Amino acid sequence: MSMNRATQQEGFTLIEVLIAITLLAVGILAAGSMQISALGGNHLAMRITTASSLAGSTIEEMMRREYDDPALDATLDPNEGDYDPEDAASLNNALNNLEHADIATWPSEVEGFEIFYHVAEDYPLPDNKTIRVTVRRDDRGVLRTVALDYIKMQF
């Protein structure tokens, strides 16, 4: 009888248990890494959404104004070439911040976002104003921008 008991042993060997624990640990670490990556992506998406919302709010404020409102005076000559929203020097030189006319009460900087706009008169057609609102933010040393364009017609 003791011979039978020795040949019928069941269970896992120590090596099988160590391999299973190693695989489980690798899986848990991979899931943790995936969560960290997802949090970073969510944070970036939140900043892009905030920038888009700020630009949209500024465009809406400008849309409600009359065509000849001083806030919508031309700030850029469309014949001077293309405006590059990614070029920081172009952004600083070609754009007004929101301290123009009576819109000085608008925030020009909100939680690390800088809001700029420019107006091109009679572009792309006569009696039209093209308004570009650019929101710039610094993401760990990298300047990122969101730009929205709107064409306001004279009625």
TrEMBL record:
Q: Name one Pfam family in it.
A: N_methyl
Q: What is this protein called?
A: PilV
Annotated NCBIfam families: IV_pilin_GFxxxE
Q: Which UniProt keyword terms apply here?
A: Membrane, Transmembrane, Transmembrane helix
Where are the bilayer-spanning segments?
A: 12-34
| Entry keyword Transport | no
UniProt-listed SUPFAM superfamilies: Pili subunits (SSF54523)
Please tell me the species this chain comes from: Desulfurivibrio alkaliphilus (strain DSM 19089 / UNIQEM U267 / AHT2)
